Every structure is written in structure tokens, then in C-alpha cells.
Amino acid sequence: MRRSFRSGGFAPESRLNPSSPRIHPTALIGPQVELGAGVAIGPYSVLDGEVRLGEGCRLGPHVHLTGQVEIGCRNVFHAGCVIGDVPQDISFAGGNTKVVIGSDNTFREHVTVHRSNSEEEATKIGSGNLFMAGSHVGHNAVIGNRAILANSVLIGGHAVIGDRAVLGGNSGVHQFVRIGRLALLQGNSGLSNDLPPFFMACRINELAGLNIVGLKRAEIVSDTRLQLKKLYHLLFRRKLALSVAVQQASEEFTGVECREVLDFIRDSRRGVCYKTRS
Predict the structure, then answer these.
(1) Neighbours of 276 (CB within 10 A)
(2) Do the beta carbons of residue 61 and residue 42 sit within 8 Å?
(3) What confidence tens digit (pLDDT) does each residue in 27-36 have?
(4) How far is CA 149 from the centre of its chain?
(5) CA distance between the termini of the chain
(6) Burial level of 12, CB count in 10 A (0-12/13-18/19+)?
(7) CATH of 12-158 among 3.40.190.10, 1.20.1250.20, 2.160.10.10, 1.10.357.10
(8) What share of the chain has pLDDT > 70, as a percent?
(9) Quick one: DSSP state of residue 115?
(10) How far apart are CA 42 and CA 32, in angstroms?
(11) CA–CA separation, 65 vs 50, rounded Å?
(12) Which residues contact 101 (CB under 8 A, 6 or more apart)?
């Protein structure tokens, strides 16, 4: 559904048709904006550029969607969110770069998501994620599905966050770092190395064992959890060179989840977290 609205009032048909967008009189909607059925836009929000907003999305007050932004259905943006502004990259030379967002995400107060720094890539966010107040997603980052970013989490450019990962409050992720599926980064911690799937990290690049709570919530069975625990011990507690440990683990562990960990480590370009918490 492609519509353009001027500020100053709701579209007349919205009073009769509940599927029509509901726009507060103080909101500003640019001529290129496309609004899906049932969208609600709160006071003083601004939508400009090539913004496409899927059906059922809700915007609180003072939300700014700008640039080329493609947003799926039923996303909720609380007060002060800024989505699609230019990347914080001093080499950025302009261009029609973009943000792509799935469905059923919640963006709490003052979340910022920057668009990519090149037209060949996009900043991408999947579906079902929770971004708590003040969290930030940098340019070209990729966020999977059902991840949780607690208050004031900072995600650097080109970082990759796997499905159902949990990042504690005030934690930071360096640019180009990857966090695997169902991994957990404790609050007030930082990563400049990759964090493999299913494991926890704390402090700066320190491993803290298996994410048992997350695995149970994801209904990973006890036999698999035991294998992952043994794999963690082999890789990081025996004090072997990581390349040697990976080779040995490849011969001993055949489960899908264990293979996921080993493949993640092999694919790492920044190196994985290796030091374990004492």
C-alpha cells in the first residue's frame, strides 16, 4: 500500500477504516514514504526519505525514520528512536544506503540504527528482537532473530549477532566481531574477538563457560548440552593450541551443535575469545 501524507491531521478515511494508517497531527510524513495497513504514528515523529513501513507498526513520539529504510510488520518503536540516519564513518561519501528490518521487533527508548556505508550492503535486523533503551546498532551490522540487546549495548559496524544471542547492559562489541547463536555477553563487558555459539563471555574477551540457561530455554536437550560442555573443556581448558584443539575436537565430536561451534571458529577472522575466567 503506497500512500503519502502531509502533516496536519489524520487521513480522512482513517476515521472510518481501522486498517488505514493513524497519524498524529504533529507528525511529518515525506512524499516518498509508504505506510502499511494499521500503522500508528505518534506525536512529532518524522518519516522522510524512502521509508517503507509494514502493516501494524507503531511509532511513539519523536521517532525519526530517515533514508532508505525497509521495515516489516508489527514493529514497535518507542520514544526517541532514530532509524536509518547516516553511518558514523568518516569515510562515508554519501549514497543511497539502507537499513532492512524484519517483523515483530521492539525498539525501546532512544535506540539508534545506522544505515550501511555502501550501496552493496545493508544494515540488517531480523525478526523478534528486543532492543532495550539506548542501544545502538552500527552501520553494516547484521542482527539475527530473537536476540536481546539490553540497555546501552553498543554494536560496532559490520558486527554480526547470531539468533537468540543475549548482550547484557552497557556491553560493547567491536566492529567486525561475530557473536554466535545462543551466546551470552555479560553486562559491562566488551568483545574485540569473536564469541562462539552457546558460550558466555565476560570482562574483555574472557570466556565464562556454557550458556546453560539459554540452551535450556531453547530446548537444547541434556545430551547435547553435555557434549557442548565437553567440547568447551577440550577447546579452552586443556591449554592446547587452539588449532590443535579444533583438529582433535573435529575427530571426537559429531553433533550438529558441536560442528556449529567448530565451523564458527574456523571461519573467524578476528580470532575467538580464548582466555577463560579464572
Answers:
(1) 15
(2) yes
(3) 999 999 999 9
(4) 7
(5) 57
(6) exposed
(7) 2.160.10.10
(8) 93
(9) P
(10) 19
(11) 9
(12) 69, 70, 71, 72, 75, 83, 113, 124, 125
